[in-house]
Amino acid sequence: MNILILNASPRPKGNISLMLDVIKEEAERQGAVVNMERVQKLSVRPCIACMRCRSSQKCALPEDDAQRILKFIEGCDVLIIGSPCYWGNVPGTLKLLFDRMVYGMMGEQPSGLPIPLHRGKKAVIVTTCSTPWPFNILANQTAGVVKALKEILGWSGFRIVAKLQKGGTLKHPEFTDKDRQKCIKIVKKLK
User: Fold this and answer.
1) Interatomic CA distance for residues 171 and 180, integer angstroms
2) CA 170, 143, 69, 56 torsion-angle sign
3) Which of 121, 126, 149, 183 is in Cβ range 3.0-4.6 Å of 22 for a Cys bridge?
């Protein structure tokens, strides 16, 4: 199994990073090939909305990390995205990355309807926020991140097999054994 993990957290020792590290270690222990990329470290220029990628199937901008990540996505069986909650949504750096890769995520029929290009692949969403549980879900904080990623992944053809939403990190920033066990359980759902 080939797994790509996108870590959209700017905190290398934060909960998202810790959870993704556990998932990576467990997946590798079970024989998967895992590549993890830190979105904050990528060099990705903003989309200029020229729409040329729709017909040419490549971005009109000079090549940068967006194309490199797209190649990883094309080659993976499972895509795992870890994202903190910024204003009930994903960080701008993650959205920017997906904006630049839209042509490689979904095609378009002549009628304008989308064609999912990654049908049959699995996805996992991992998210955290400072809003306490259950308000992180009820107030559309981590639920907002999940909704945004479900939109991108769903139109691209990915089947979401697991979601992990951890709220209340402001008052409880610690990474617990219970968190670790939830991460290990996610890897079991990838088979």
Assistant:
1) 19
2) negative
3) 183
What are phi and psi for residue 78, nearest 5 degrees?
A: -135, 135
Of 118, 124, 120, which Cα lies nearest the Cα of 189? 124
Predicted model pTM: 0.94
Dihedrals φ, ψ of 138, to 5°? -65, -35
Contact status, residue 26 vs residue 109, Cβ threshold 8 Å: no
Q: What is the pLDDT of residue 10?
A: 95
pLDDT means over runs of 10, the chain (191 residues): 97 95 97 98 96 90 96 98 94 97 93 93 95 81 92 97 91 91 94 81
157 Rama sector, left if φ>0, alpha if ψ -120 to 50, beta otherwise:
left
Q: Determine contact, residues 101/120, Cβ cutoff 8 Å.
A: no
For residues 186 and 164, the answer to whether their CB atoms sit within 8 Å is yes
**What burial class does residue 35 get, using C-beta atoms within 10 Å of its C-beta: 0-12 exposed, 13-18 middle, 19+ buried?**
middle
Q: Which SS3 state, helix, strand or coil, does residue 37 take?
A: strand
